[in-house]
Amino acid sequence: MATLKDIAARTGLSVNTVSLALRGSRRISSDTRRKVEDAAGALDYTPNHAAKSLISRRTMTIGLLLTDVTSPVLTQVARSVELTLKKHGYVTLLAASNGDQEEESRALATFRARQVDGMLVYPNSHDALDEVARLRDAGTPVVLLAGPDDTPLDLVCIDERHGAEAAVRHLIEIGHRRIGLMSSTEMHGNRQKQQGYADALAAAGIAYDDALVVDPLGNSASHGFEAVARLMARPGPKPTALFVDNDPLAIGALRWCQLNGVAVPDDLALVGFDNVEAGAFAAIPLTTVDYPVDQVAEIAVQRLVRRIENEATPDDDTPVRIRPHLVVRQSTAART
Predict the structure, then answer these.
(1) How much is the pLDDT for 54?
(2) Cβ(27)–Cβ(56) under 8 Å?
(3) In terms of C-beta density within 10 A (0-12 exposed, 13-18 middle, 19 or more buried), how is residue 113 classed?
(4) Which residue range forms the structural domain that includes residue 108?
(5) Side-by-side strand order, sheet with 269-274
(6) Which is it for strands 61-66 and 118-121: parallel, antiparallel or unpaired?
(7) Distance CA 315, CA 303 (A)
(8) Which terminus of the chain faces fewer neighbouring Cβ atoms within 10 Å, N or C?
(9) Is Magnesium there in the keyword field (predicted)?
(10) Same-domain status, 82 and 136
(11) Confidence bin at 333 (pLDDT 50/70/90)
């Protein structure tokens, strides 16, 4: 591998000047910088990050732990985080817990073994954060991308409870009273959405009805398809509207309605959550709660980098919950 000395010998400059030029120092003129960069390209020079980390005690690597990388919105989160970290000079080490607490523990242990400078964590369970807290207490900067209201950990996320409440309130305002809920009991993070659903009903004086709640037993479109079939097959009055806690589930429910003569939104209004691209291009464009992916990524990365570089401000101790907005499309309509 070519070294700084090789570039110095080729250009006739000192090693220090070459080093400063490659780091983009303003002390080096543009002509000199270009000369060094041309020589580095000709020699196929690659920076030795392992050697740098021994000196700086930093690997310039961030661990990003998500629950499910097949989730469209979490895929967007991963992309946005990776791009934002790149602007700050960091690379991303990605792992997924796949909804398993032991997998999450192994991923966190791998991050520690790789000596990442910090971690961004979307936890599998909002109620099982002891391991993440121990990492933080041991000196590893950690920022959560989801978590409970009372967490003492750094938190940057969207306000899922507010988003769900806004979605159900929209359905109430356009005349619906029998509003169903499709939400997985296995996903601990969904409790905020479930609470938002209940809050909106209570504020409108509508009784919570277990007969209108269905667990999809998963998070894919096929799970949504099967869950709405079970819900609509129950005896008694059918729901006139349905709040679904993610867009893939809602798209699956929409497909079942189309195949079974249930008109959307006339017979059943549908609202999803996350605002994934597919929802806007569904046969009936989906009303949904927007997940401001780029905003979450930008704030979380900035907070984490400040922690790593010991530049945190008092405001960084305050959890950030971004209130999402409702995107109204053709899957909801007023009751007549």
Answers:
(1) 43
(2) no
(3) exposed
(4) 60-158+292-322
(5) 213-214, 179-182, 241-244, 269-274, 287-290, 326-327
(6) parallel
(7) 10
(8) C
(9) no
(10) yes
(11) confident
Does residue 52 belong to any structural domain of this protein? no
Q: For the stretch 127-159, what's the b/e string if a residue is b when 16 or more beta carbons lie within 10 angstroms of its beta carbon?
A: eebeebeebbeeebbbbbbbbbeebebbbbbbb
Q: Taking Cα atoms as reference points, which of 301, 251, 300 lies closest to residue 275?
A: 251
What does 118-145 look like in DSSP terms, one character per residue? Answer: EEEE--S-TT--HHHHHHHHTT--EEES
Question: Which domain CATH number covers 148?
Answer: 3.40.50.2300
Q: What is the pLDDT of residues 29-53, one digit of tens each?
A: 989 999 999 998 898 887 765 555 4
Eight-state DSSP code of residue 100: -
Residue 143 is predicted with a pLDDT of 95
Which residues are CB-neighbours of 159 under 8 A, at least 6 positions away? Answer: 192, 321, 322, 323, 324
Q: How many domains does the chain have?
A: 3
Whether residue 175 sits in one domain with residue 242: yes
Q: Note whether residue 179 is domain-resident.
A: yes
Phi and psi at residue 289, to the nearest 5°: -95, 125
The first and second tokens of residue 320, run together, are: 């950030």
How far apart CA 288 and CA 276 sit, in angstroms, is 9
